[in-house]
Amino acid sequence: MIQPRRPHGRTQSAQSAQSQSFFAAFAAFALIVVIAAAGLHAQASRTRAHVEALASPRFEGRLAGSDGERLASDYLVAELQKLGAKPLPGQQDLRLPFEFTAGTKDGGSTIGISLTNAAAGAEGRANSGRTPARALSFSDNGDVDAPVVFAGYGIVVPEGQGFGYDSYATLDVKDKIVLVLRYFPEDAEQKTRAILARYADLRYKAMAARQHGAKAMIVVAGPRSPNAGELVPMTFDTALAGSGIVAVSITGDDAKRMFAPTGKTLEDAQKALDDANPHAAGFALAGITAQVHAAVEREKRTGHNVVGYLPATVPVAGVAKPWVALGAHYDHLGHGEAGNTLAGKDDAGKIHFGADDNASGSAAVLGVAATLAKEPRRRNVIVGLWSGEELGLIGSAAFATKPPVPIDALAAYLNFDMVGRMQDNKLTVQATGTSPVWGRILEQANIAAGFDLAVQADPYQPTDVATFNLASVPSLGFFTGTHADYHKPSDTADKIDYEDLDRIVDFAAAIVRRIEDAAEAPAFTKVDQPVQSGGGRAGVRVYTGTIPDYSTEVKGLLLGGVVGGGPAEQAGLKKGDVIVEIAGQTIANIYDYTYALDVLKIGQPAKVVYMREGKKNETTLTPGARK
Ligand SMILES: [Zn+2]
Question: If you measure from the C-alpha of residue 513 to the centroid of ligand 1, how many angstroms do you get, rounded to a whole number?
């Protein structure tokens, strides 16, 4: 990671003694004018100062575990103290640190191959010596010495997907090492490829191997696959520990050596599988045992949640669920070094200010808390500013796993993530399916607020509201929609709509008041999780070099840019183009596009239909292989 840099304060050169008093008088006058103007400003908005502070260069984009994040947490601690917030029961501090993994690297994984059959001769066991392997980022650390079973692509498609496929159907892999091919059958027809792609993610394959009793999984990119014979790069992974199985990738040469004594070849074995015939099976590599040494080094860092509470102003004895919680994540992407940036190539490495994402939500939480701090309260109000959200909801999850207050004593949780870019008076409220009371409370509170509410029942959102829903806390999430500056350095404080942000503060305060005042706490309703799509992004093998622009108003895939020298640039695509069709598939949104990527073939030209300045155009794009 890039070491965060701290800006140095500039020192003024000394004035000459003669002019000093005049300047002092003038400066004092100017200062009064400035203070008066700032005073008016502050009155106009209760959120602007917080957004401008959090999104300032001083905090360097607030990447969890960075110096910038720690400085931002100092700011938030000071703000909570001003409001009179107290540390949670049993805590000394408003700052609640948590440890997480900020990255992984290989610590010297190896593979050894031995023969146990007659080929080994009188010694009974011939050892080939160790060669380097590379651990998968989610691997357990450890050593496994066991016979090897080739399990094809190692894919298990769950029932109900319209296509049955189980690489383990005819194999006994209990206590064995499975050798699997990376990716999925290369020659399958489009529809089948799309299904298989969803279950080809290596994490998913490792889970299948573990469930079938295998002790370790070895992955090789087959000779007929993209990146043939190459080790799998380690990916960014924030898990604190391994996924319960030893998993490494090996080179094509090592895989060949495993196959050699069996009289079969990896290439033939792959060919037999590549039309995705569900009856083509793997087989034990007779007489072969492997010695897998997996070593993953996980870089630990410390992130900081900032959490306090405003105590109830009347005794809460006898009150059902005497706590209400407000929360927002304050961390962001730093300079984009964790890989989740959407910055174009000209902006790469710059500070991602995260004014909307999520200085806006943090400011809203401070704003609601400031309002509630001046009023009588019948329940304790938790004020939570989470870190590590951008790396996978790590901060809120750390809080909910070991909550200083019993989580079932929370009457409700209100989350604010990206609430500073309201358009046409539209406010999205998520997770309303988590309690039957939300419909009525929102309706009542909105009489004064007058938003055009877009209500979404689904609590499985990519933000901290998901954490509290999983803990069975009735929750709401506020959101004003995504935009072209999402996850880019251009998400800056000057683009925030402070007037509407303040209206959201008033609206949310009214909702908290209703929860606080009710004798009964809202009931929790469990919302069924939508069907998992399995593989996800890591399963995508093709590389197109497009940089999507997450704008809501466009039908199709709006390009925020293209990667220099990538397939999209070579196809003549550029920033501002809207892809509406690729390889015969209509693209209405980013999900359609992701789905379409599954069926593209590496090196095979695909027709792309796109809009440029209102005119329909066509080009041909040849996808490359993603590393
Ligand atoms: Zn974000």
Answer: 29
Give me 46's structure tokens.
């209760």
Cβ–Cβ contacts within 10 Å for residue 287, how many? 16
* pLDDT above 70 (res 274): yes
Measured in Å, residue 463 CA sits from the centre of ligand 1 at 8
Q: Tell me how far CA of residue 437 lies from CA of 305, 379, 441, in angstroms.
A: 29, 18, 6
- The more confidently predicted of residues 190 and 133 is 133
| Size of the chain in residues | 627
Any alpha helices (H) in 94-246, and if so which ranges? 190-197, 202-211
Ligand 1 centroid – CA 587 distance (Å): 24
Separation of CA 390 and ligand 1 centre (Å)? 5
Q: Are 184 and 602 in contact (CB under 8 A)?
A: no
Of residues 223, 234, 219, 203, the one with CA closest to residue 148: 219
Per-residue pLDDT averaged across 518-538, rounded?
69
Q: How far away, in angstroms, is 450 Cα from ligand 1 center?
A: 27
Element (H, E) at 621: strand 615-621
Question: E strands within 250-333?
Answer: 283-294, 296-310, 323-329
Helix, strand, or coil here: 292? strand
DSSP lists the bridge partners of residue 127 as 114
Rg of the chain over Cα atoms, rounded to whole angstroms, equals: 28
Ligand 1 centroid – CA 77 distance (Å): 22
User: How far apart, in whole angstroms, are the C-alpha atoms of residue 158 and residue 579?
Assistant: 32
pLDDT band at 9 (very low <50, low <70, confident <90, very high): very low
Q: Residue 627: which pLDDT band, with cuts at 50, 70 and 90?
A: low
| Spacing, Cα 357 to ligand 1 middle (Å) | 5
Q: Where are the alpha helices (H) located in 374-407, listed in sequence order?
A: 394-401
CB 487 within 8 A of CB 340: yes
Distance 90 CA to ligand 1 centre (A): 31
120 three-state secondary structure: helix
Query: Over the stretch 415-465, which tens digit does the pLDDT of each residue have?
Result: 999 999 999 999 999 999 999 999 999 999 999 999 999 999 989 888 999
**Cα–Cα distance, 445 to 462 (Å, whole number):** 26
CB 182 within 8 A of CB 225: yes
Distance from the alpha carbon of residue 236 to the mean position of ligand 1, in angstroms? 16
pLDDT at 7: 27
In this structure, are residues 587 and 540 in contact, taking their beta carbons and an 8 Å threshold?
Answer: no
**DSSP label at 355?**
I
Ligand 1: distance of its center to the CA of 488 in Å? 10
User: pLDDT-derived band of residue 343, with 50, 70 and 90 as boundaries?
Assistant: confident
Rounded CA separation 170/117 (Å): 23
